Amino acid sequence: MNLLRITPSTNSSISSRLWRLSIFLLLSLPDSKGRAIWTAHLNITFQVGDRIISQLGDSGVFGNHSPLERVSGAVVLPERWNQNACNPLTNFSRPEQADSWLALIERGGCTFTQKINVAAEKGANGVIIYNYPGTGNKVFPMSHRGTENIVAVMISNLKGMELLRLIEKGVYVTIVIEVGRMQMPWLSHYVMSLFTILAATIAYLFLCCAWRPRAHNSSMGRQRQIKRDVKKAIGQLQLRVLKEGDKELDPNENNCVVCFDIYKPRDVVRILTCKHFFHKACIDPWLLAHRTCPMCKYDILKT
Ligand SMILES: [Zn+2]
Ligand SMILES: [Zn+2]
């Protein structure tokens, strides 16, 4: 049971280390670069033949510098081959029936700020940027300082390509962007770490507190039991009163090794299982303390 071997100083040093780590994590919270991420619900509507199809999903995230507002409009691509809208002369093929429109732009080629500004200058009501090819469903909150007046969201490459193909086929697509939920991935990460460490500290301290008295009690209990067994074993050992003529009275042969005195008639002696004998008054306290014969170390509990 290793816990029994943990000294109070080891205990306190482990606990204090855990506490220091918790405090460090707490203090490092304001330094974390994270901020709240707002998801964007995209309600996409388009017509295929006679059917009007509507898709609603948690498919994007608002940019870090985007206003958190509902915005809607027809989805419009940059004209010609260049879909990244980095060129300030980029035009958007806006359908005539659209009062408001949202630019759908490919990520890359220049900063987010540049392409958002190009679309804003052409009169877009919002900008949807789709992620790089090969990134699947991944999205992340863009940084686009200086474009705080226009809604900008990022959607996944897969969703972007889906919209792109529809519009290239001449399908009229409209989107309503709505503010979704707030997410704090950095917070959940720190809170989880902090809670894990705190829980570990509390569990550790609890175990130490709960275990110690129990361990202490059980060891005390064992000692008391041994004491009772020793007393019982002593009581079962033979007693004899020496009398004149006994060979044990020969001072050249025997004397009590506890008190070094010779045996005299009427002395009460205790005879151990190993056949060694001593004054009862000498050997009983000795056995209570040592359990063994002072001469041959025979354990009286082994009988
Ligand atoms: Zn003696
Ligand atoms: Zn002995």
UniProtKB/TrEMBL annotation:
Signal sequence coordinates: 1-34
Domain RING-type as annotated: residue spans: 256-297
Protein's name according to its UniProt entry: RING finger protein 148
PROSITE patterns (alphabetical): ZF_RING_2
Keywords, ordered alphabetically: Membrane, Metal-binding, Signal, Transmembrane, Transmembrane helix, Zinc, Zinc-finger
Subcellular locations according to the entry: Membrane
Gene this chain is encoded by: RNF148
Origin organism lineage: Eukaryota, Metazoa, Chordata, Craniata, Vertebrata
Transmembrane segments: 190-211
Secreted listed as a keyword: no
Topology term for the membrane: Single-pass membrane protein
Pfam families noted in UniProt: PA, zf-RING_2
Major location category of this protein: membrane
Record's keyword annotation contains Nucleotide-binding: no
Organism annotation: Galeopterus variegatus
Source organism superkingdom: Eukaryota
